[in-house]
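Morning, I've got a small favour to ask if you have a moment. Here's the protein in full, and shout if anything looks odd to you:
***
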Amino acid sequence: MGGGALLAMMLATTAMAQDGPDPTGDIVVSLPQGRAPQPLETRHVLDARDIALVDAVAADEILRRLPSVYVPVNSRGEAIAFVRNAAERQVALFYDGAAINVPWDNRLDLSLFPAALAGRAQVAAAPLAPLYGVSALGAVSFTPPRPAHGHVRGMIGSGGLREVEAVAPFTRGSTDVMIGGSYAARDGERIADNADLPFSQRGALRTNTDREIASVFGRVGTSIGDHLLSVTAFHVDANKGIAPESDRPDGARYWRYPTLQHSLVSANAGLVLGPTTALDLVGWYQRFRQTIDSYTDDTYTVRNSQEANRDDTVGARVLLTQQLGRTRIIASANVLDSQHDQRDTTFTRGQPPALLPAFLHYRQRNWSFGLDATTALTDAITGEIGVGYDRVYYLETGDKPDTPDAKGWTGRVGLSWAPAEEWRIRAAVGRKIRPATMRELFGQALNRFLLNPDLQPERIVSADLGAEWRSDAAGASVAGFVQDLDGTIDQRNVGRLRQRINLIGSQVIGVEATAYWHPAPEWTLGGNGTFARSRRKGTTGDQTDRLAEKPDVIGRIYGDYDGQSGFGALAEVLYTGRAYSADADGVLVALPRSASVNVRMSQRVRFAGVAADVFARGDNLFDDRIVPQIGLPAPGRTLRIGLTISGG
């Protein structure tokens, strides 16, 4: 895999500014002097307290609270993140600076990424700088927990939920150590009373939605003079069932994931080379193992096939920052080398063959180079220009024909104007490419694949115009955005064969707004909403121009009370507007609009230097029918209670 050469590069950073802790949480740089310039993309953050109030088991529950992030669950059972209706293969996921999408299909199931690993979550919306790397129209990043005191949490809830997590920090001089672990299991998800599930459904729990997730994780960070060094690692072991599409009498997927393992080791270094020069390095190794069992029917007793996947990925990022007067220049290089091994086995009357088939081997290497320059045009106006070049090599193609490399240029230009301390207005336009994934190119059954030597990467031009206002007691932002995509990668049937092709494309036009207000020290009121018009381009006649699973509105309003007496309360409404989904015949049909009303109450008691928090939470209290994809409803009314014990 070329791993030895890449591992030699591997030290890493996710950006600690010299004047304090990392203000952004994904890809920024160590600064020899001054503070980082304000980013030109739209960013929103959930801090440790925001995440704690969600009482989440997995990361998908956290991300649903971020503006412009929509997290549906697809028919493969994967919780995936859309950003401003940019689909999951266009959204980069980072953990402490390391890219954690599985390159085989450039996505990750967020329902199997434990919430205990996340101390902070952030979304960055397009247009993004070239330094983010290949296929990054939007970005979602997590940083590990870094609590001042250790804690232990236990929780039980609907559907047989039981969960426990623990995190312990230690400090020795300039070195910080954090270790933790979590375990969660459930028997299944509750379904709403009015859910329309005529097939493959029995009882109050959604068919085949049990889940078990265990994790261990840790981080070591230290400073040597002005230099910052850290190592982060986690291991996740999970299994779960996949709910069948219950709107159809046949053709549903009867799947289980009996094993899933996800491991990451990343090393980070932020090096100050001089008063105006910094070098940031990040490198990682990711190991992903997954088995998918397919069954004949909804009894899940007779297997008809099995898919075994093994993925090994090595990645590195280098950022060299140079300050030249009022101009900051960042030269960036990203590389990702990934091997995917897959074995597809057909069963006969539930039994595997005497001799298992061999694994097929696939391998891909991504390279990305960029140069970004930011300059203070005046005391109030900052300008930026960035250019980059992305290339993807398909080095091994299993039993499929060789495929040409994918390549293309990227770029961004923007302006930021701060007419007063409280105000900031910004505008940016950028271009990205999204090459086909290995699964899109090669993930077809044996002898059913037809090479398309003319397949091109998707090309996306995006623009963002935003304004932000902040004061001590309140804040608001609004941003209009456009995403214009050419060459959408899809597939067609050619006789009995399948072939990937480029369609004309699609366009998303929308506006995003956020606001918060502290009417009193103990109160926070706020909300966000994203309104988007998503349409196909080039439709004619009676063809629909709608796009599947792209809602026209998503939003959240909330009220948060954190009393000095230790009593806390949170009420929120998560709203999803009109979206469309394909039925059993492939026809797009309208999905119901929905609103989930959620309430949380807690009481903190302190004794002998220990704080104990008792909490209760109810999600979707009115048992609304929430359907992100036809035949696959989200959970109905769900209750949780728990206890957190922490030091300090």
